Structures are given as C-alpha cells and as structure tokens.
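Weekly puzzle thread! Below is a chain. First person to post its structure in token form gets bragging rights.
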Amino acid sequence: MQQKQVSLILILLGIIVLAFPVIGVIPFSFLTGVIVSLLGAGLLVGGIIMLREKVGWAIVGIISGILVLILGIGFIVNPSLFSFVASLFVILAGLMFIAAGIATITGIIDGDNRAGIVTLVIGIIYLIVGSWIADPELLGTLIGIWLIITGFIMLFRNN
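Winning reply:
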C-alpha cells in the first residue's frame, strides 16, 4: 500500500515539475550545493590543519577547498550553474564513451565490434542529452519526465 502512495506522489510531483520545470532543478541544485559546500569546507580545514606538516599539499588543499566551497555556494544560489556543470559532466562522459567505442571498433581495445558500436551510439546520445540539460528548463522537464516514469513503474511493479 505504501508503494502505491509513493508512486502517486512521484507522478504528482512529475506533473508539477513539468508545469514549472525550474522548480525541479532547484532542490537538486540546493542539495548538491550543500554537499559540495561541506566538501569544500572539509578540504579547507584539512589544508589549514596540514600547514605545519606538508606545506605544498596544504596549499593545494586550501585552494581546492576555496574553489569547491565557491562552487557549492554557486549551486545553492544559482540553479543555472548546476545545470551547466551537470551538462559538462554528461558531455565529458559522452566523449569518453565515443573514444572507447572508436577504440573498440578499431581494435585498439579488445572487444566485440558490436559493443564498440553500441558504446559509440551511447556516447552520441550523451552528447545530445548533455547539450540539452545545460538549460535549466529542459533539465527540469527531464526531471519531471523521470519522476512520472519512475512513479508509473513503481505503481505497476509487483513486490
């Protein structure tokens, strides 16, 4: 019974997010921003604590901590930054898939040519989706669609 309620909530949330797509991005951006900010604060504190022992690594830790902290705060206050970084990571993953697919097809990496073709196609799909999610509204729309599909899967799934 509880699974049915959760699935209906997911479907309802998906419909709301489709109506207001940026609303779907804000919670993800905020939560990611909080986590990244905590990571940045940890790197910063770790770098400061390490200053007396290993100055070079401490400076790297402090600089990394400051940059990651700024990125995390940016995610919290600007969902567009979150969309851009998410897009960047998806595009990079797509490029890696394409490289692996080409390497498999050409024989640089051992494997079946069909697997290389599938990997290449997946990489191209990643590039397309990555270019779409740079826009917070399209990312929100994809999140809404994902919520609805997940809700329906849960609704019709047998325990």
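Puzzle host: Confirmed. Bonus trivia for everyone else. The chain has six helices and no strands.
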